[in-house]
């Protein structure tokens, strides 16, 4: 399938693997890239030395295009950006911040830049900042999310109408049906995160993967909007957060409850009681651990078949 996104990124399938913290290491990125999608390292959970080690491993595992996702709020962002140049990373995906800060610097050094947005207004600003494409991420998505709670179905066509650059749909996409729907809305590719958590190659803990596979409708909730909106699986830690809200907790108490390292404890170390378990609503539709290559191929094949049929 050829779209402006595949041409821009030099990939076969217009499928980007989300750069999820604690889940998106080099093994997953290589598996996706080697199957014709765009694999992504989630650098937000990596110290600078770790990112460099991951990049070295990924460079040895694939000769295909890949990306690094860098949250703009990351404290060592300059070191991460320099690592992207040192290892000749072809695509940088920025998120959680102002794309004006680093896009020009990256473009001057020959990088392709995508930016994650949660509204058409931010998409317009990202285009003005010079990014090559935007990823429109709806309210359904896992992890940190937009404050306006705009769903993917509403967000994607709004962003498509607002900008001239390619739009990638994200949030609630896990198979060829949802990918075909996104393309019909005007997107020229999709980003999938949660579906790739449930793969052998994902660097998430097996216990967390098991929770994803057993999730049902209503198993996740967007919360902690006073700090940074995040979608979580409902576990004992989430119950503590809900109880804090019930007694009228303010931002300071919520921040103290969250503390440090909750996401690592849950997703990387497998603490299902005290850890933060970030995943999208689409977890309710994921019930099988499947190799990343199969996810890419099956999603692309189903999407193309549906679009040919016009159904």
CA radius of gyration is: 18 Å
CATH architecture title of the largest domain: Alpha-Beta Barrel
Order of helices and strands: HEHEHEHEHEHEEHEHEHHEEHHHH
Average pLDDT, all residues: 94
The biggest beta sheet reads:
8 strands, parallel
Low-pLDDT residue spans:
none
CATH superfamily of the largest domain: Aldolase class I
State the strand order across the main sheet. 1-9-8-6-5-4-3-2
- How would you describe the shape? globular
Number of strand elements: 11
Number of H- or I-type helical stretches:
14
- What count of domains describes the coordinates? 2
Give the DSSP E fraction (strand runs of 2 or more residues): 15-25%
What do we call the CATH topology of the largest domain?
Answer: TIM Barrel
User: Distance between the terminal alpha carbons, to the nearest Å?
Assistant: 17 Å
Structural class comes to alpha/beta
What is the CATH C-level name of the largest domain? Alpha Beta
Helix content: 40-55%
Write the layout of secondary structure elements.
Elements: H1 4-9, E1 15-17, H2 26-34, E2 39-42, H3 48-61, E3 66-71, H4 77-86, E4 91-95, H5 103-108, E5 112-117, H6 120-129, E6 133-137, E7 143-144, H7 152-162, E8 167-170, H8 176-184, E9 189-192, H9 194-197, H10 206-214, E10 220-223, E11 230-233, H11 236-246, H12 251-258, H13 262-268, H14 292-309
Helix pairs in contact: 2-3, 3-4, 6-7, 8-14, 11-12
């Amino acid at each position: 399938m050829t779209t402006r996104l595949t041409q821009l990124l030099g990939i076969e399938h217009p499928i980007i693997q989300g750069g999820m913290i604690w889940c998106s290491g080099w093994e997953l990125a290589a598996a996706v890239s080697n199957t014709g999608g765009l694999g992504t390292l989630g650098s937000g959970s990596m110290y600078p030395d770790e990112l460099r080690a991951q990049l070295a491993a990924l460079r040895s595992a694939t000769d295909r295009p890949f990306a690094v996702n860098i949250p703009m709020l990351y404290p060592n962002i300059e070191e991460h950006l320099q690592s992207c140049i040192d290892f000749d990373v072809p695509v940088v995906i920025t998120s959680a911040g102002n794309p004006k800060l680093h896009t020009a610097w990256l473009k001057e050094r020959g990088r392709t830049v995508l930016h994650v947005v949660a509204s058409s207004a931010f998409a317009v600003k990202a285009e003005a900042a010079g990014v090559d494409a935007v990823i429109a991420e709806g309210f359904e998505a896992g992890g940190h999310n937009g404050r306006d709670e705009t769903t993917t179905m509403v967000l994607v066509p709004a962003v498509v109408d607002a900008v001239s650059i390619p739009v990638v749909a994200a949030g609630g996409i896990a198979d060829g049906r949802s990918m075909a729907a996104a393309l019909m809305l005007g997107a020229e590719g999709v980003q999938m995160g949660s579906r790739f958590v449930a793969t052998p190659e994902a660097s998430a803990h097996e216990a967390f993967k098991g929770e994803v596979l057993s999730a049902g409708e209503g198993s996740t909730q967007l919360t902690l909007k006073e700090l940074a909106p995040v979608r979580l699986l409902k576990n004992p830690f989430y119950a503590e957060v809900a109880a804090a809200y019930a007694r009228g907790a303010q931002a300071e108490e919520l921040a103290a409850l969250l503390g440090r390292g909750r996401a690592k404890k849950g997703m990387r170390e497998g603490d299902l009681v005290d850890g933060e378990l970030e995943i999208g609503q689409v977890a309710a539709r994921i019930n099988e651990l499947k190799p990343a290559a199969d996810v890419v191929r099956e999603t692309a094949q189903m999407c193309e078949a549906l679009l040919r049929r016009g159904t």
